[in-house]
Amino acid sequence: NAVLMPGNVIRFVLHTSKSDTLGTILGISRTPVFTFSAAMRFDSVYYISRIVADSVGSNIRLNDPCLQVSKGQPVVFYRTPMVIISDPGIGCGNEVEIAAVSDQSKVSWYWKNLSNQIDTVNFSDPDSSLTNVATTKPGTYKIIAEAKNKGCTGRDTFPVLFSTNPEISILNIECNDSLLNYTITLAIKEGKAPYNFNQITISDTLYKTGNMSSDTPYSVQMKDANGCLSNLLAGQPNCSCFSEAGTMSLDTLRICNNGSIAAGNWENNSRQDINDTIAYILHNDPGSNLGYIYDKNFDGRFSYKPGIPIEQVLFISRVVGNIKGDTVDINDPCLSVAPGQPVIFYPDPKPLMTPDLIACGTSLSIAIEVAAYQNFNLVASDPSRLQIMYDQSGLVQFTGTETGKEKIIWTTFNQGCTSEGIWEITLNPLPGYIQPTFECLPAKDSVIIRFSLTDPAGLMINNIKTF
User: What does residue 46 show for φ and ψ, rounded to 5 degrees?
Assistant: First the structure.
């Protein structure tokens, strides 16, 4: 809505006055677009005004007595925050504390993950400059920190490696023949090889320590190649005991609950004193301690009994200790327990129960109940006379080539355990009929309909109806 006289031009001015006069001029432009300059200060209010005056060459005459200045539009320039993420190191245990700093104090923080595994990263304080980052899977994740100042956003990205901590467990503590020294055999998993223990590099997942004095307690902790620490194992062995249960096979036994026998396998490397006996115990601890005891005997052969959990890993351990009655004394202070052989008892497949199958015609559809943990199979005794289509949800379609009785062999499966049985299906023929005849009575107010039906047995049934 500016009014221009001959010779006038329009320019835009960035200046310091909030009135309709010009303050300190910081920039003049043909368009109302200005950038921050060294003469300006962040967070200060400036104004953009439109001015009209005579031109001087390609410029505007600022001392024109008819200079017109519009009241300026306020504008504030904010500094874009600079963000730096401090190197957090490796996220051992899939978790790490990470921090970021900014050159501005009054900023809003936000953390996020730029990697593909979006759902596997969690931030404990995503709105703080300091947060814990946890992942559900190991790997390298690109972590981004954003700082916002009045809509101006600065960011930094840093790749963080997350790694699981190594885990160690004791497979065996062995005292030497003199009982003056002992060694520990350790199993190592997770983490990243090679591992380090007492400045010894270990590349394998099994490690046997050197001799340690039997009157000295042990304290074992390892560090993996990423610098992540394992759990700490500490204790005092009892080398005054001579008993040694030896070792069991670590191959998992899978047993059906139909009377099958779980026979433990072991090495012939046990050692007994004169008061000892050897027994076998079914329990639920994977190490060299007895967990909850479900059964015990002297031959290492176990079958399912009520109370034994199914589809859970149990263990058959050989134990060496003093005789107590007709078993071993599990409270013997020198009781030795071999880490057990894993065994899993599976439920017997349930039979497929169904009523007598009787069909009118040569086809029949049914739905049968199938236990969630098992699959099944159906086979006709004569596939040329009866076709069977089904899925594991229990929907079954029978289609015969002719009527009659057929046998169906069913089998259910669960982890190698099977159950079998036989069904019988009867495909009955449909009733037939002979084309009816019609006879009008003389009065022509009634009609006689004569027809015959043939039942499935082939008998003729005559019917006469008058209407």
Answer: -120, 175
Supply the pLDDT for residue 56: 85
CA atoms within 13 A on the CB side of 375: 6
Across the range 308-331, mean pLDDT stands at 89
Residue among 130, 122, 126 at smallest CA distance from 86: 130
Task: Quote the CA–CA distance of 368 and 396 in Å, as a whole number.
Answer: 8
Give the CA angle between residues 308, 313, 316 to the nearest 5°: 75
**460 pLDDT higher than 60:** no
What is the pLDDT, as a whole number, of residue 326?
79
Is the pLDDT at 360 greater than 80, yes or no?
Answer: yes
Give 438-457 pLDDT, tens digit per residue: 778 777 677 777 766 666 55
The per-residue pLDDT for 459 is 46
